[in-house]
Amino acid sequence: MNILNKILLILLFPVMGLSSVFAETQYKGVNLAGADFGYETRPGTFGTHYTYPTHEEVNYFVSKGMNIFRLPFLWERLQNDQNGPLNMEE
After folding, report:
1. CA 38, 39, 42, 43: dihedral to nearest 10 degrees?
2. Nearest alpha-carbon partner for 28 in 73, 72, 63
3. What is the CA radius of gyration of the chain?
4. Is 73 domain-assigned?
5. In total, how many domains does the chain have?
């Protein structure tokens, strides 16, 4: 066995041992909208032009077995001015 094969075995062995753990994990997800609305009023006002999902909404989907969440948002909410600082409140 050459050195490259030995290195590959060392790198892949831990992954191969975890494959059964990964095989048992079932990913179920949901898209939660809110912060992607109000493009015409960007950055907009929270609660008026856009919102984020509440803890209750997230907990509802968790209770239904969801373990992946997609939360679309407008980048302009995080960075109000091009090349400007990030909005730390967002």
Report:
1. 70
2. 63
3. 21
4. yes
5. 1
CA 3 – CA 25 distance, rounded (Å)? 34
36: domain range? 23-90
Prediction pTM value: 0.60
DSSP 68: E
Tens digit of each residue's pLDDT (9 = 90 or more) over 33-57: 888 888 888 888 888 888 889 999 9
Give 29-55 as a 3 state SS string. Answer: EEECCCECCCHHHCCCCECCCECCCCH
Our CA dihedral for 40, 44, 45, 49, rounded to 10 degrees, sits at 30
Q: What is the amino acid identity at position 83?
A: N
Query: For residue 42, what are its two tokens?
Result: 């960007």
